[in-house]
Amino acid sequence: MREAVIAGAVRTPVGKRKGGLSSVHAADLSAVVLRALVERTGVDPALIDDVVWGCVSQVGDQSSNIGRYAVLAAGWPESIPGTTVNRACGSSQQALDFAAQAVLSGQQDLVVAGGVEVMSRVPLGAARATGQPYGPAVLARYDDFSFNQGISAELIARKWGFTRTVLDEYSARSHELAAAAQDRGAFEEQIVAVDAPAGETTEGGKVTADEGIRRGTTAEKLANLKPAFQDDGVIHAGNSSQISDGAAALLVTTPEKAAELGLTPLVRYRAGAVAGADPVLMLTGPIPATEKVLRRTGLTVADIGIFEVNEAFAPVPLAWQAETGADPERLNPLGGAIALGHPLGGSGAVLMTRMIHHMRDHGIRFGLQTMCEGGGTANATVVELVS
């Protein structure tokens, strides 16, 4: 049976809202990581069978199959196709799953997976600004619930009994860990710098590092922020993921093809899983998705050396940890989206890139990544270090 490996992983810095990447078109930002991927691996782009690209808000700058235009913006041969995937926040993680499935099935041998989101230019919710996506039957089924992720985060915090102090302490930890990782150079090799033109809110220039980290953040400082979704709520801007800009790309192939092309596999794709959950709580999908992917691999939580659980809101990884019993020291050891940002359609590939490099740098055999998604779904993926 064929195997799939990831033989390259690169990302841009994650830019903050209206920050250094805000003047870059999504196709051009995607092209940065596509070009870097082939430069760093040495693969001829003409050999790539397909590009599977995640993007959530597929309107305006990100409309009309941004995956295809990313290929053209990169200057790659016109013969290379590209497609765009939307599984909400898990879009580029799903892109990886689709790429791996194509390789495992034998239909394709060399596929690029990844994604992009430039939220500074295409705001969150822009794709549904002119319509109602749920429809009367869905709304009636759930008693006209607003399907607001912030409210869902409040419900999760209430269900698991997380106080605001607990959430804010976790959020401060995210910034602390991210700052420490940045200071020791943990992200440098995986990042490709972006030459950004001047824009409305930026002077332009080379962007080389993640912009969202707020050094010196403490739970006491976060306590001064107003709740964002309910007057008496516990969710606010400081314990939520940041609006961000960014892109990442992964090269997926077989071990045999990698050897033929002189590529060095980083990790072996062990399994992927998708799960649905209550769309009112919405953000609890990583719990059943983790259970499903572990069953498929025959592994246990104790076997996993690093967990990347997307920090959409602080209650999400905390509820996941409470239900799985995972070692909290192995949970988001580099910080997460609260500190490092969440460029929606690019986040799955960004997290995978961070996790792969951390596994290689520390000799960690198994890593598990999971991502909550709008509508109550979630992806989970397990990869194994290639020694």
From TrEMBL:
Assigned keywords, A-Z: Acyltransferase, Transferase
Pfam families hit by this protein: Thiolase_C, Thiolase_N
PROSITE patterns linked: THIOLASE_2 (PS00737)
The EC number(s) this enzyme carries: 2.3.1.-
InterPro entries the record matches: Thiolase (IPR002155), Thiolase-like (IPR016039), Thiolase_C (IPR020617), Thiolase_CS (IPR020613), Thiolase_N (IPR020616)
Domain Thiolase C-terminal intervals: 264-384
Domain Thiolase N-terminal: 5-254
Acyltransferase keyword on record: yes
Molecular functions per Gene Ontology: acyltransferase activity
Family (UniProt): Belongs to the thiolase-like superfamily. Thiolase family.
Designated name of the protein: Thiolase family protein
Lineage start: Bacteria, Bacillati, Actinomycetota, Actinomycetes, Mycobacteriales
